[in-house]
């Protein structure tokens, strides 16, 4: 089994993660998320009053606008918009603000592979920054399958072009009790992880798909820890500064 | 809402970091055990019949947080106090809004809420102060009272079937003239008994709106204004203060002297410094920053520089630690 990758990573290793919040002045929430060279900037406006005609006014609706790095949006970007909208709708609590619209604008800064998971992570961080009520956080990850059946995580652009198939997965973030010893869950077993979004491209056998799920779920634990630590630090420092 | 984006030099960065760490150590004991992020489960005693408040949800019989913030418990009520969120109105709040629309019998105001607030014609005093029924002529003259993009101060009346209603039934509410409107995150403005402040030594008025809109303007005498107007002007002038005044007398009335304008800008920059640093905005802190800038003979635009912001952070750390020792 070949374990070497061009940038020196092991098959299960993610690229370095960088996340910044509150970087735009006029938006209600904003976040920038980078995985290696791939970077996405997300801004959230709203909730604003009113809904579009095609939407249900009894619930809050979410509008996603995808901005590519250059040029106009094509079919691929429209598909990304729809996937992102469905994912965000599933994590937001939409009954709290009826007849409102929340706009999420996703600007691609650079694309070096695994763009859609990076955008989902950035949009979730921006929603948290805007104070939108959410059921849980979402972490997204990309797995790919080589011709020899090897599974690697978080491929770059060059690796994506050589892959036989790849899959984008979105998992809910893990849940931690405020007082761990007071948790009502059985033992220390975390809640069962559900899959929120799963999109595959290329030819993939069922065994490969299940292996990708295993690897993706294991890697999402690290992503969850990163997101949680980031938000906790920010929340604590803001409360202490306000006084 | 932007984070601290000051062009700090290396020395200033170290000083600011030290001041913020001191502030964090002062409040870490209070906040660290209650901080939650989204989907954390909050431990409650289910036998007590706990009420789930804002920012919480029920998930498989367990209380989980839907916002990032601090858990607060008031008797049986458990809720999450979020920091970064829109303004949540409560009855009796003093808010400042901007008129976005003049509709039939009402004005729509933007108050940093997820829908526009409504100020009915019948919910406010007429400019001449006469208490009478509103007629069709008053409806036609609504744009003479408030027009689009005017800044209005009002009080939250409550939620009705068609949205949030405001009222302006006192002379201290109404249209705001000759000043600056600032926008800060709403969590920086605490609810207090007094939100109208008159800084006598500077001759300016300060209104801290609960929705994060802050008004700094020239002082207006609430009671004398009506008497004076009735003496010096005709009724039509009083009824329609928005009309364009061509006469020299009217222009002179709208003029603000340079000294007062400088104080207005200085107070506005003090609020901006506090908002940039993320500190609570109260009257004594604003006064302290103004006095600090005056004692240093600082220019008004230099108040927004990085050196003064670092100095304000250090002074705030000293103030809070001294208050802590005093207890």
From TrEMBL, chain A:
The keyword Glycoprotein does not apply. Keywords: Exonuclease, Exosome, Hydrolase, Nuclease, Nucleus, RNA-binding, rRNA processing. Pfam families: RNase_PH, RNase_PH_C. GO terms for biological process: nuclear mRNA surveillance; poly(A)-dependent snoRNA 3'-end processing; rRNA catabolic process; rRNA processing; U4 snRNA 3'-end processing. InterPro entries: ExoRNase_PH_dom1 (IPR001247), ExoRNase_PH_dom2 (IPR015847), ExoRNase_PH_dom2_sf (IPR036345), PNPase/RNase_PH_dom_sf (IPR027408), Ribosomal_Su5_D2-typ_SF (IPR020568), RNase_PH (IPR050080). Signal peptide: none annotated. Its main location: nucleus. This is Exosome complex exonuclease RRP46 homolog. It comes from Glycine max.
Automatic annotation (TrEMBL), chain B:
GO terms for cellular component: cytoplasmic exosome (RNase complex); nuclear exosome (RNase complex). Keywords: Exosome, Nucleus, RNA-binding, rRNA processing. It is found in: Nucleus. Pfam families: KH_6, S1_RRP4. One of its GO terms (biological process) is CUT catabolic process. CDD domains: KH-I_Rrp4_eukar (cd22525), S1_Rrp4 (cd05789). GO terms for molecular function: RNA binding. Its main location: nucleus. Gene3D superfamilies: 2.40.50.100, Nucleic acid-binding proteins. Residues 90-169 form the S1 motif domain. Belongs to the RRP4 family. This is S1 motif domain-containing protein.
């Amino acid at each position: 089994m070949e374990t070497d990758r061009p940038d020196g990573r092991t098959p299960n290793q993610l690229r370095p993660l960088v996340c910044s919040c509150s970087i735009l002045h006029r938006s209600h929430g904003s976040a920038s998320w980078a995985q290696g060279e791939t970077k996405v900037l997300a801004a959230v406006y709203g909730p604003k009053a009113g809904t579009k005609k095609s939407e249900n006014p009894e619930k809050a609706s979410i509008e996603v606008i995808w901005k590519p790095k250059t040029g106009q949006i094509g079919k691929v970007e429209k598909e990304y918009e729809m996937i992102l909208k469905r994912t965000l709708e599933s994590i937001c609590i939409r009954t709290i603000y009826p007849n409102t619209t929340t706009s999420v604008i996703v600007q691609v800064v650079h694309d070096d592979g695994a763009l859609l998971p990076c955008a989902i992570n950035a949009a979730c961080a921006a929603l948290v920054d805007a104070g939108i009520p959410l059921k849980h956080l979402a972490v997204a990850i990309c797995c790919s399958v080589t011709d020899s059946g090897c599974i690697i995580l978080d491929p770059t652009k060059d690796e994506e072009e050589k892959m036989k198939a790849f899959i984008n997965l979105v998992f809910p973030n893990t849940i931690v009790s405020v007082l761990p010893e007071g948790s009502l869950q059985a033992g220390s077993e975390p809640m069962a992880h559900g899959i929120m979004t799963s999109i595959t491209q290329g030819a993939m056998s069922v065994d490969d798909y299940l292996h990708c799920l295993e690897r993706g779920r294991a890697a999402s634990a690290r992503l969850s820890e990163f997101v949680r630590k980031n938000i906790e630090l920010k929340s604590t420092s803001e409360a202490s500064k306000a006084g | 809402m932007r984070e601290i984006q000051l062009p700090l030099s290396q020395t200033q960065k170290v000083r600011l970091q030290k001041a913020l760490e001191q502030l964090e150590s002062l409040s870490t004991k209070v906040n660290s055990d209650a901080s939650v992020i989204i989907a954390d489960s909050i431990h409650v005693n289910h036998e007590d019949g706990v009420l789930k408040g804002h920012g919480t949800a029920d998930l498989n019989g367990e209380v989980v947080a839907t916002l990032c913030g601090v858990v607060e418990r008031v008797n049986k009520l458990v809720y999450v106090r979020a920091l970064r969120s829109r303004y949540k109105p409560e009855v009796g709040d003093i808010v400042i809004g901007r008129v976005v629309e003049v509709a039939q019998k009402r004005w729509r105001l933007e108050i940093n809420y997820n829908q526009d607030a409504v100020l009915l014609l019948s919910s406010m005093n007429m400019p001449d102060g006469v208490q009478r029924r509103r007629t069709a002529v008053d409806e036609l003259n609504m744009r003479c009272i408030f027009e689009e993009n005017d800044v209005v101060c009002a009080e939250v009346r409550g939620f009705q079937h068609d949205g949030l209603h405001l009222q302006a039934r006192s002379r201290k509410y109404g249209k705001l003239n000759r000043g600056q409107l600032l926008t800060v995150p709403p969590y920086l403005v605490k609810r207090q008994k007094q939100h109208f402040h008159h800084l006598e030594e500077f001759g300016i008025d300060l209104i801290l709106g609960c929705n994060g809109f802050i008004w700094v303007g020239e002082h207006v005498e609430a009671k004398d204004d009506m008497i004076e107007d009735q003496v010096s002007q005709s009724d039509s002038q009083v009824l329609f203060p928005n009309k364009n005044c061509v006469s020299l007398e009217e222009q002179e009335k709208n003029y603000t002297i340079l000294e007062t304008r400088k104080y207005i800008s200085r107070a506005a920059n003090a609020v901006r410094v506090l908002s940039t640093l993320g500190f609570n905005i109260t009257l004594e802190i604003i006064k302290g920053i103004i006095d600090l800038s005056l004692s240093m003979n600082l220019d008004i635009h230099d108040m927004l520089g990085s050196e003064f912001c670092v100095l304000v952070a250090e002074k705030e750390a000293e103030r809070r630690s001294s208050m802590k020792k005093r207890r």
